[in-house]
Amino acid sequence: MTLTNLCRSNEIGANSFLVEMPGASVVLDTGMHPRVEGEAGTPKLGLLRNKKVQSIIVSHAHLDHLGALPLLMRQQPDARVFMTEPTYFIGQPLLHNSASIMKKRFAERATPNQPLFTHHEVDEIVKRWQACHLNQMWSLEGHRHIFQGGISLEMFDAGHILGSAGVLLRHPEKTVFYTGDINFTDQEICRRASFPESGIDTLIIETTRGTTAAPAGYSRQSEWLKLAERIAHVFERGGSVLIPVFALGKTQEALHALHRMITAGNIPPSTIYIGGMSWKLTQWHDKLVQNLNLFDRVKPQLMDGRQIRRIQPRSGQIYLISSGMMTENTLSHMLAQTFLADKRHGIFFIGYTDPESPAGRLRAAAAAGEPVRLSESPNTHPIKCDVGAFDLTAHAQREDLLDYILKVSPKHVVLTHGDPPAKAWFAETLKSQRPKLRVTVIAPEETVEL
Ligand SMILES: [Zn+2]
Known about the structure:
30% of the residues lie in helices and 20% in strands. 47% of the residues are buried. A 7-stranded mixed sheet has the order 6-5-4-3-2-1-20. Strands 7-8-9-10-11-18-19 form a 7-stranded mixed sheet, covered by helices on one side. A 6-stranded parallel sheet has the order 14-13-15-12-16-17, with helices on both faces. It is an alpha/beta fold. Zinc ion binds next to loops.
């Protein structure tokens, strides 16, 4: 059995892996790089050109795991695609949104890259998606009945966002568990991961937070309260708050938490604005999660992209706007320029930010007391407003990931989904704690025996 890394680079980008085993080839995730446009931002699908992929498994609907699925399905028209039920529903508007953005940017000559896929293609590929319940075994042909000694897949709740799952591949030769993105603590909406803890030969695990030690006494609740305090200060001096967030997952988590803290009096009464994509995905959360009712309870306001240049942020307003990394041409990127120029306002981050993204650069510049470069152009903006970051990531703490690896005690661990120093921390720590454990850091385009 082998594993091939289809990612083009050694960072968190377009996640995708091929597992080849006697009797089947399975692709795990087919993501799109959040910062790189065109083919360069997709997995190296050319490596699959002369192969036949039976099954594609999507761990969750974040675009760095799902975004290039139409390209893989174009190349592998007979492959079956497995995902959880929420991913089945929320994956569709996300891919349509990507198609719209690529079309618009090409039409406006903002990019030389032709759109990678069309709305029509998204509608077509969905017909071959299969939604699977968690904790049930499925054959790679999509049946619930598994023959003794056959190959099967089973999904387990990963606790990262709605619908996120780790995937257990059982083969007579070996059992492989691919975690996707994980959270081992309860969040506002998502309960912690519920993963298998035994019977795993090879564990393919994410390492996003490998460079960040959990601070002593850390809790999500205390981080939310710290954020509430800073928001209250901003409002007191007549300012408004921008929180750049991902449309999927973080928006709904933050709506829930902000409303809870407003109700408890930690934050003065506020109006929360969200963008169009967040609006759609919040509607899906309300449909899929029992008794969530975010729209009824929180009453967010829709912020139309066409209004953005005319907005005059005021006290009592929270702009919970995507993208979380303030990628260029997104609403949060445009709005940031208004916020940076006024010392009354605040820009607060509550999730992972790639150090190379505008959000990562703003955090670093604010810490260094320097002006920030928000785009590819050399122009910089002075930072007049309050800038803060709160540790409310949807990824597991590295200590929890390490505990999980040690508890599972597999024969082989493959470290993925982390910047090189994050993977190196896990490799070194595991080497000192479990010298006999085989640990692999798989390079882009490399194939390893499992
Ligand atoms: Zn994710």
